[in-house]
Amino acid sequence: MHRLSALLSRCSAAYILLSCLAAQVSASYFVISEPQNATQWVNGNANLVQWEKGLLDGVYGFDVEMARLSQDGLMLLAMNVPATQGKINLYLQDVPAGDDYFLIFINSTNGILHATSSRFEIMAASSTPTSPASLTAAPGVPTVTVSGGPNPTQQFSTTFPAIVSHAGRRRSIDAGLLVGVLATGLGVLLGAGWTALW
Ligand SMILES: *[C@@H]1O[C@H](CO)[C@@H](O)[C@H](O)[C@H]1NC(C)=O
Ligand SMILES: CC(=O)N[C@H]1CO[C@H](CO)[C@@H](O)[C@@H]1O
After folding, report:
1. Which partner for 129 in 13, 40, 72, 197 could form a disulfide, CB atoms 3.0-4.6 Å apart?
2. What is the CA(43)–ligand 1 centre distance, in A?
3. pLDDT by residue (tens digit) across 15-24?
4. Considering Cα of 17, then 20, then 26, then 30, what sign does the dihedral take?
């Protein structure tokens, strides 16, 4: 966790900076059960991501990001993943091989971190995994395509539809934000007028 916060605090993209400022770790039960430490993913394949979480924690969805321990930068993989889904597949394309990858489940809007995975390995296309336990892609769940390495200017590869259960809350937050923005704008206008008078 310490390493992650160090990593996040070093990141520079404005959007990530916002997450860094607000970063908080949610306290509820939330475990990424796949990939595990021994998991080896191979480029050119769909690979399974699976999670378990508390039912009553009020988390209906999250954003999936991937990072490396040895490098700065995040890969933004999927936004608004429905929590009840339980699993998604990641299809890898030209992702640099390395044994220091981990997944981050976060709400990148408010910066609340839900879970991080164990460290796992990504292998070059057509490599043969040596670990016996690597699970194959699950049928009937969405597959998100991931290409390339960390890139600070990239957007989320896939965005799922907005999570409906939060619609009411989001509207009220937006209203609050709007009032704040209007008030700030008014303040700036008043300030400008004041300066002009003098
Ligand atoms: C992230 O948090 C915001 C604000 O609390 C909320 O409106 C949004 O639905 C959350 N994102 C997901 C994917 O649940
Ligand atoms: C907890 C953990 O990360 N254990 C091991 C996972 O695998 C790497 C090598 O791939 C080991 O260095 C870690 O000790």
Report:
1. 40
2. 31
3. 443 345 345 6
4. positive
